Structures are given as C-alpha cells and as structure tokens.
C-alpha cells in the first residue's frame, strides 16, 4: 500500500474544504511513502508539503511511553514502583468520596509508574459525570486541561505543587481518565534521568530513530499554521507560524501533547514498534505497550468511553479490534492520527492541523486503509 492510495480517500474532503490540507504517510513492509493534498491555509495557494512540521498534540504520548520503558530497562525506575521517590509532592494522597463533594479518604495505595502509563493515577477529565468542584479547581489552577499551550504552564516543580493541593478523583489504579497522568509522567521521567524531558527524549528515542524534526520546539521554516473551528463552522488561526507558541522552549515540557514533528517522523516511530522494538525497546516492552490493560468496566466508564470509543488502552496508546485485524495507535486533538496494523506490517499516519479533529477526514482515512487491507 502506498500513501497516494490512502490520500485518494481523503482528498475529496480536502477539496470540499473540511480541512485546508492533509498529509498521509504509509509504512508497509518497511517501505515508507508520503503524499499531501491541499494548502497550508483555507483557500490559500501555498501547497501543503509532505515534510511539513505540525503540532503532534496527543501523538506525543506513545513516544513518551516508549521513553519510560527505556528508563525502566535502564533500571532508573520500575513499572510497579510508587512515584513517591521521584515526586514526593504526590505521596500520601487523599481521594474524593464523591466527585461532586469535598469529603476525602486516604488513598488505598500509592500511585505507580504503570498507573501513569495506563492513565489510572486517579485524576483527569470528568466527562458526563455531573459537577466536580475539584476538577473545576484544577482548571482554575492552570494545570493544562484543553488544547496544548506550550507557554501556558508553569515550570515542572510549580506545576506539581499546584496538583499536590488537590485530592484525587479516584483511587489509584481504579479508573481510566484522560490525560493528566502523562503530564506527571513527564516530570517523573525527567527527575529519574536527571535531565529535562526534551533532552532525555531526544537522546533515547528521537535521535536513535532519526526523528530529527520532532521536539518541543518547531523549525519555523517548515512549520504550518494550525486552526480551530469557529462557532460559525469556519476556521480561525489557533497558532500561526511567525508568532507560534512552538518556537521557543516551554517552561513545562508537556508529555501530554507538547511535541511538534512530521508524518515521516511518526512513521519512523511506528516502524520501530512494528519491528518488535528495532533494538531500541525489548520486544516484551512493545507487547506491553500494545496490549490492552483495562477491564471492561474501565473501558465503558463515563470518563473513558468518549475517548476510547469501545477500544482499550495499553502503555501509552490505544488498542482495538478492527475489520482488518488488531490495530493500535492514537490521535492528536489538533488533527493528527496514527494507526498500525501489525498483522499486515503496516503503519499509516494522517496529518491535518484543525482543532477539533475533523471526523469525516479521520473516518475516510481509516476506512480507506482498512477496506484495502480487508
């Protein structure tokens, strides 16, 4: 399968104006191809290039999860280890009795590294569960709920101190909640390695894989604008180029979604997983990443169902069944999507830059790939 074959299924939506442009990348049996359609801005005449740098948003999570497993292999931390040693600010947690109340009880156990990777630390988005004053306070404290904003957060120590003032919403390990766990994970990994998260990620994941365009700062010569959909359905600039918030190092390197990169770089990472770790990760670590860790009740819970859509969660990425066989990957809120179908030795990436992701474009991409595989 080639990228232009998949792009053919997406291009009509680009032509109709659903998104200004789209990039498709495919890695099939070790061969990578890229193709692009449309422009960098609505109604623009500057073609979107296949090597454009974009904001990866939540597609950062799998990369950070792989880094965590590298540090586990180094002996710097363990999956079942309480995070208290590295983040003592979050030791001895209290847990709400009810989401809409203030009464708390002691946490039954500490938060572990695996709790962070599986997003079961006990704090995250509250969705369709009624009022939750504690979550509202987390938003007011500026902990970063919403679209990624590289310069909207304080430094890691201050960020953790603010979180430490709040009780947990659930007992550690009990419930899946998007996505604050990964912000905590980034702090844990930086402290374990004794270096800023960006440096460690580059040294252990990005540089070995040749992901030269990926990082917490974007190359302005290749960066393209990102857009948000306005109340009237039209697109307004969310983040430009000359004044982009991704051009300077952030105070808080946010492991939830702070990275910028390219479709080709994402395919390099996907290829490493398809190759059983490619010498970077142990094959057992890849299996752990790509195996569902959730119970049926956790997958179906109100806080999880809107994000997982019937699928499950491994260590840092979503896993689900499909008509073409098992697949894993994840999406980014600024319009990026990556899936791998390991039985077909195939990974495919879709890149747009529209918030929220355009459902018709995502669906056309996935359907085109799976129809061809079936």
UniProtKB/TrEMBL annotation:
GO molecular function: hydrolase activity
SUPFAM superfamilies: beta-lactamase/transpeptidase-like
Classification of source organism: Bacteria, Bacillati, Actinomycetota, Actinomycetes, Pseudonocardiales
Organism: Actinomycetospora flava
A Pfam family: Beta-lactamase
EC number: 3.1.1.103
Enzyme superclass (EC): hydrolase
Stretches assigned to the Beta-lactamase-related domain: 11-367
Protein name: Serine hydrolase domain-containing protein
Keywords tagged on the record: Hydrolase
């Amino acid at each position: 399968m080639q990228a232009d074959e998949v792009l053919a299924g997406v291009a009509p939506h680009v032509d109709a104006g659903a998104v200004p442009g789209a990039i498709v990348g495919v890695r099939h049996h070790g061969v990578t191809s890229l193709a692009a359609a449309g422009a960098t801005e609505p109604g623009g005449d500057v073609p979107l290039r296949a090597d454009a740098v974009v904001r990866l948003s939540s597609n950062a999570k799998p990369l950070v999860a792989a880094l965590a497993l590298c540090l586990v292999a180094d002996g710097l931390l363990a999956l079942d280890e309480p995070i208290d040693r590295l983040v003592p600010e979050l030791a001895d947690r209290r847990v709400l009795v009810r989401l809409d109340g203030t009464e708390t009880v002691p946490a039954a156990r500490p938060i572990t590294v695996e709790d962070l990777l599986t997003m079961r630390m006990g704090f995250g988005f509250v969705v369709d569960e009624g009022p939750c004053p504690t979550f509202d306070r987390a938003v007011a404290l500026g902990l970063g709920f919403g679209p990624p904003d590289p310069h909207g957060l304080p430094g890691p120590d201050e960020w953790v101190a603010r979180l430490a003032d709040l009780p947990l919403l659930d007992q550690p390990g009990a419930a899946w909640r998007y996505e604050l766990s990964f912000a905590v994970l980034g702090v844990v990994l930086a402290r374990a390695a004794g270096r800023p998260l960006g440096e460690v990620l580059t040294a252990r994941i990005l540089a070995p894989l040749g992901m030269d365009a990926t990082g917490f700062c974007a190359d302005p010569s290749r960066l393209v604008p990102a857009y948000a959909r306005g109340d009237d359905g039209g697109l307004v600039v969310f983040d430009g180029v000359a004044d982009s918030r991704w051009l300077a190092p952030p105070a808080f390197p946010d492991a939830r979604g702070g990275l910028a990169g390219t479709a080709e770089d994402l395919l390099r990472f996907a290829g490493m997983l398809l190759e059983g770790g490619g010498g970077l990760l142990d094959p057992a670590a890849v299996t752990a990443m790509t195996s569902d860790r959730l119970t049926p009740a956790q997958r179906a819970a109100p806080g999880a169902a809107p994000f997982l859509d019937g699928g499950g969660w491994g260590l840092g990425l979503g896993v689900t069944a499909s008509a073409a066989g098992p697949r894993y990957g994840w999406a980014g809120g600024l319009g990026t999507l990556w899936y791998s179908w390991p039985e077909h030795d195939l990974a495919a990436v879709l890149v747009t830059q529209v918030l929220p992701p355009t459902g018709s474009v995502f669906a056309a991409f996935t359907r085109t790939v799976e129809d061809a595989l079936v």
